[in-house]
């Protein structure tokens, strides 16, 4: 297994639509295992393939709280086939938008159809945290970030902060090279 590099916003690669997976083969399984390892290492509760630069409709999630046994889900070509009318706000964060958190309103309960790691079609019902994570990760497959659900004023502030942070980091890298 290997850790993958997570793309940090703003980055045009995070705004692209991912393509459906034709068949779950050994390479896809390997990718999903690497995504899970990367997610746990970050640490995070979900990761979508486009965040690792792979434009495929694949997400991994694990809503288990710290100390609880892991409960990973690997989902290929996920599709929401039902969503509750009842919505709930939930504070969301994203490994591609480090240290930024804002409440996002989404349907509370969903039913999702997906292909599992054995290439079998499955359906899962989710509510609460699991529902939030799946919807958040599925957004990544269509180039949508959680900040796209909040006011443009707040979104612009967050993107500005992240842009500034990137400039600082690339400056630090240059210095490190100069010092080498
Ligand atoms: Ni995210």
Provide tags for this entry:
180 residues, alpha+beta, Peptide Deformylase, five-stranded antiparallel beta sheet, two-stranded antiparallel sheet, 7 strands, globular, binds nickel (II) ion
Protein architecture, described:
The protein contains 3 helices and 7 strands; from the N terminus they run αβββββββαα. With 180 residues, it is α+β, with helices and mostly antiparallel strands. It has a single domain (12-150), classed as Peptide Deformylase. It has a 5-stranded antiparallel sheet, with helices on both faces. It has a two-stranded antiparallel sheet with strand order 4-5. A hairpin with a 2-residue loop joins strand 4 (87-94) and strand 5 (97-107). It binds nickel (II) ion. Nickel (II) ion binds next to helix 2.
What is this structure, in a nutshell?
The chain has 180 residues and is α+β, with helices and mostly antiparallel strands. It has one domain (12-150): Alpha-Beta Complex (Peptide Deformylase), CATH 3.90.45.10. Helix content is 32%, strand content 28%.
SSE string, helix = H, strand = E? HEEEEEEEHH
Helix percentage range = 25-40%
Alpha-carbon Rg, integer? 17 Å
In whole angstroms, the N-to-C terminal distance is 30 Å
Class per helix and strand makeup: alpha+beta
User: Uncertain runs with pLDDT below 50, 5 residues or more?
Assistant: none
CATH topology title: Peptide Deformylase
What overall form do the CA principal axes indicate? globular
What fraction of the residues are assigned to beta strands by DSSP?
25-35%
Strands of the widest sheet, in order across it, are 1-2-3-6-7
List cofactors, ions and other ligands.
nickel (II) ion
């Amino acid at each position: 297994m290997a850790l993958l590099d997570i793309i940090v916003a703003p980055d045009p690669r995070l705004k692209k639509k991912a393509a459906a997976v034709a068949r779950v083969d050994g390479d896809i399984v390997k990718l999903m295992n690497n995504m899970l390892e990367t997610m746990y290492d970050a640490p995070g509760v979900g990761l979508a393939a486009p965040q690792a630069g792979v434009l495929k409709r694949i997400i991994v999630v694990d809503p288990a709280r710290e100390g609880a046994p892991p409960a990973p889900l690997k989902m290929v070509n996920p599709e929401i086939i039902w969503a509750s009318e009842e919505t709930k706000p939930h504070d969301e964060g994203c490994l591609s938008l480090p240290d930024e958190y804002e409440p996002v309103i989404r349907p509370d309960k969903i039913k999702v159809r997906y292909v599992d790691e054995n290439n079998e079609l499955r359906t899962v019902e989710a509510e609460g945290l699991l529902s939030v994570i799946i919807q958040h990760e599925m957004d990544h497959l269509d180039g949508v970030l959680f900040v796209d659900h909040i006011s443009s004023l707040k979104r612009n502030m967050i993107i500005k902060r992240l842009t500034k942070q990137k400039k600082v980091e690339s400056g630090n890298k240059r210095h490190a090279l100069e010092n080498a």
